From TrEMBL:
The protein's name in its UniProt record: Dephospho-CoA kinase domain-containing protein
HAMAP family named in the record: Dephospho_CoA_kinase (MF_00376)
Similarity comment: family membership: Belongs to the CoaE family.
Entry-linked PANTHER family: BIFUNCTIONAL COENZYME A SYNTHASE-RELATED, DEPHOSPHO-COA KINASE-RELATED
Originating organism: Galemys pyrenaicus (Iberian desman)
Length: 231
């Protein structure tokens, strides 16, 4: 198996692209979904957020008020850093568990949707491919304002909290341009999927696991055949 890191900017179209990969039967891990799970009441990160940010970031039912917390962290880099130090280790643990489950199920590749892949850089060394979902800044701003019902200032604060998309494009191996009509993006996703499906990059890990298993099996055989009877 090999890992593909998919990233982009806020509202550049990552989730829309991921949906197409899912429809094509791919194994997908969405870090935004994990990030929502690990801050639910009862999880360690929930308690640490309340300790760090106060009860004003809670809704009446105890859930995190994502709008309030978002407004806080997207406007204040030090508080954003604090939230990241609370949530990112928990997110990484869950990501590893989910990746391992897909490995056991025999998938050739897994796509990890990691919004801050190039900001944190931590996971880059594990990835065979990196994909950026790009759209031009005006389109990104318009889509973000519309989807999240944000004014221009709040939407710009969110965009400015991340590396510019143009920089991410330079760092990625593949770029999906989602500035135009959705049908054009969909076609690019299908082409990329075909390329990844044809790749033989999953073989080295699979062969080394099979070789390891064969080694253990041979050892067990030799033990039972020659050593155990004499004990
Ligand atoms: C700040 C929160 C509460 C805002 O919630 P909200 O529902 O409005 O947004 P959602 O979680 O759907 O994220 C939307 C997008 O915002 C961007 N974003 C989220 N967190 C961050 C961050 N810490 N820094 C920069 N951009 C971020 C990403 O592009 C993400 O895809 C939430 O994003 C959060 O808990 N963030 C911390 C965890 C994190 O870093 N997630 C990003 C994945 S590593
Ligand atoms: N090609 C397109 N044409 C028109 N609208 C689009 C296109 N691609 C995505 N959108 C819309 O833009 C918005 C952002 O897309 P999406 O939610 O996929 O982005 P995202 O990168 O996953 O966002 P986030 O970073 O917040 O998780 C959504 O409302 C989506 O329906």
């Amino acid at each position: 198996m090999f890992l593909v890191g998919l990233t982009g900017g806020i509202a550049s179209g990552k989730s829309s692209v991921i949906q197409v990969f899912q429809q094509l039967g791919c194994a997908v891990i969405d870090v935004d979904v994990i990030a929502r799970q690990v801050v639910q009441p009862g999880y360690p990160a929930h308690q640490r957020i309340v300790e760090a940010f106060g009860t004003e970031v809670l809704l009446e039912n105890g859930d995190i008020d994502r709008k309030v917390l978002g407004d806080l962290i997207f406007n204040q880099p030090d508080r954003r850093h604090l939230l990241n130090t609370i949530t990112h280790p928990e997110i990484q643990k869950e990501m590893m568990k989910e990746t391992f489950k897909y490995f056991l199920r025999g998938y050739r590749y897994v796509i990890l949707d990691i919004p801050l892949l190039f900001e944190t850089k931590k996971l880059l060394k594990y990835l065979k491919h990196t994909v950026v979902v790009y759209c031009d800044r005006d389109t990104q701003l318009a889509r973000l304002m519309q989807r999240n019902n944000l004014n221009r200032q709040d939407a710009e604060a969110r965009i400015n909290s991340q590396l510019p998309l143009k920089d991410k494009v330079r760092m990625a191996r593949h770029v999906l341009d989602n500035s135009g009509e959705w049908s054009l993006t969909r076609r690019q996703v299908i082409l990329l999927h075909t390329e990844l499906e044809r790749s033989l990059e999953y073989l080295p890990l699979r062969l080394s696991v099979l070789t390891g298993l064969a080694g253990v099996a041979s050892l067990l055989y030799l033990l039972t055949r020659y050593l155990l009877p004499s004990l």
